[in-house]
Amino acid sequence: MSDALVEISGLNKKYALSGGFLSPQKRIVHAVNDVNLQVFRGETLGVVGESGCGKSTLARLMTRLEKPTGGSISFKGENIFSYTKGALKSYRRGVQIIFQDTYSSLNPRKTALSMIQEPLTIHRLGSAREREEKALEIMNRVGLKKEHANRYPHEFSGGQRQRIGIARALVLNPELMIADEPVSSLDVSIQAQILNLLLDLKNDFHLTYLFISHDLNVIRFISDRIAVMYLGRIVELTTNENIYGRPLHPYTRMLLDAVPSCDPQQKERKMKIKGEARPQNGEGCAFQNRCEHRVEICEKEAPPLKKYDEQSHCACHRAGTI
Question: What's the burial of 95, exposed, middle or buried (CB within 10 Å: 0-12/13-18/19+)?
């Protein structure tokens, strides 16, 4: 992991929301707020956080399904928001996304085979026969059988539909795969199958993953590095081992303590879970209203994401002291 495949610099995305009949004034929501991040070639970078923290918005920005309010995303050294139409089409071959909803992400009027070979048709790769052979090959690789080729989405289970989504993303041989909560709607046993499949595909196809989830157990299993998001900001970025063995940010500790355990000997939670992720009015740390370790500076100044050691970055005034 010596070179960065993706570099995100000062990325912002704001949405203007209507206040409604009783409050006509518009409200500005910072879905992604000054994010700086690198995704290194060959790694799996996990992004974790509560619902509404900006994980999926980040994924949509990286796939150019959304335009940013500010900042840039560079793919192999080029800003993706400055691409021409031809360059954008080439970028879409190199970066694919696996969606969370296994049903709404598929066209109910198309068969599995036609959906998997559709990207090849759009990019005009090979003849009709070659496209069909390629699609069948990828179907087999993700665990679908030839007899599944002419079935429609409603005829598959949730796990099988997600395999179709993975095959559709894989058929163009991308360099980066963005997985947006790909197993959250599946049963636990099926989750394990899909995660193992993704790991196998990563090794066989030399893929790089940006893996988004709210489930810390899933993130722990699949990720090399982990970025913790809170209200649009990266509050901690470190290795898999450090995030579970030596978490620096109080929010990370809160997430870890929220993970249920079957161990009757589990110690009492160190970080009490309280409140909800809501934007703060005024200045200061966005997490201050939920943090039992806050001090005076937390109310006045938002902490930047700083390097703590060779492997860890943290946005907390008291990182390493609590």
Answer: buried
